[in-house]
Amino acid sequence: MNSIDDALHEESSLAQPAQAASLEGEVTGGPSTGRQIARATGTVMIAFIMVSLVGVVHQMVITRVFGVSAALDSFYAANRVTELLFNLMAGGALGSAFIPMFTGFLTREDKKGAWRLASGVLNTVSLILVAVSVLVWIFAPQIVEHGLFILAADANLGQVDETVRLLRIMLPSVVIFGISGLVMGMLNAHQSFLVPALAPGFYSLGIIFGALWLPSRWGIDRLAVGVVLGALAHLLVQLPSLLKLPGRFYQLTVGFRDKAVQKVLTLMVPRVIGAGVVQLNFLANTVIALSLGEGAASAVTLAFALMLMPQRAIGQSAGIAALPTLSAQAELGKTAEMRQLMASILRGMLLLAAPASVGMIILRVPIVQVLYEGGEFSPTATQMVAWALLWYALGLIGHSLVEVLSRAFYAIQDTRTPVLVGVGAMSLNILLSIVFSGWFQSLGWMAHGGLALANSLATGLECLILLILVRKRLQGINGHEVLNGGLISLAGSTVMGLVVYGFITIVPLSSRVVSLIGGV
Known about the structure:
By secondary structure, the protein is an all-alpha fold. 82% of the residues lie in helices and 0% in strands.
């Protein structure tokens, strides 16, 4: 579920560079630009936080109703397959190819061409998603038994059948999200951002509705139905805004022969490869987690979702806010201004991400207790999720910085480099996941923590390589400014960590209150 949100959020950022590129007076890279980026980042951050809070509520509902269980493992495993399909066939790859071309038609005041393109892409992508979903429906038993559970020697036939059933229930969401993602891109291209930004929150509300108000006799199937309802809500909430767009029309035609549609599909290829590797990495982690015993897959998924909360607020918000200005600066050849802006953003992100990482490490148990524990979610489940969160939190800085570093390459119209680096990092992640999960088991530790550590180390390496390559492309990156920010952040985080650790050690009963305030 998280990766679908990420892919759709990414589309929001991809619509903006075309409008920003002409604003030469606003991209000088001086203090006013920094304030502009800060304001934009703050706006996007608030939107992300609001949606993330709804997401936390839906995770709280899921865990308290179903706990960390084999049934929830089956749900997350099935959901991973639908995420894989969506991100391969649509998601950020489709947005990065469709939105610039759609915006180009609008910029040339060719509304007829723009909506012909939109209709062709919508119909083509829908047909592809329907066809692929039908194939997955047919071969779901083989995909689950010989794919997801291939390493899980102790998996029983009941759990396999349950996963197949959940996968089949959720398949319509793939088609719905493909359509909804395109609608989001059309709205963004018309400078309509508020409703698309709120749409993921409606997706979470659909899942909450499924968990709480659908018949309890449906069991875990309630969540799968909730996913489909949430996907519908994600689409329907955007339709009124779409219907208000000027000059819009829909053409019932397959766009395979349309040159513009063909170009969109061609431009998707590099991003599809990159997205495919990322999704296969997630899928591989799920397969490994399913082999580590009941609850491991759920614990890893829940912990990763917690790490993504500050990552979205810090990393994705900064990346989305910075991309239009970076793109405009690159278009105008203002390399020095790009260096200054990148340095300022990276410095600011370090000042936020490092304390957040330390806070999550120290307060991991009370954070999980406050958000998840209760109902079917036991203290043992709390320890499992907190253990994974410990190792994921180590990678928060890397995850946050990668969001901006990769967009620096997008700004100079280089999508190949971040994809290649990401492929290498994700391949390393799979290898380290196998090694570390076995190593943790040999030490008598909970093995799923090794998956989280592998992710953090691989992402850290990806961040370092991208930083080196960005520095080379921009002939520097004002390293002293970034380093000073890092040192200040390290010192402040250390002091904060010691104070918080001492406080919760001396007054343990306050830890839940402290963690709740910190989380908010």
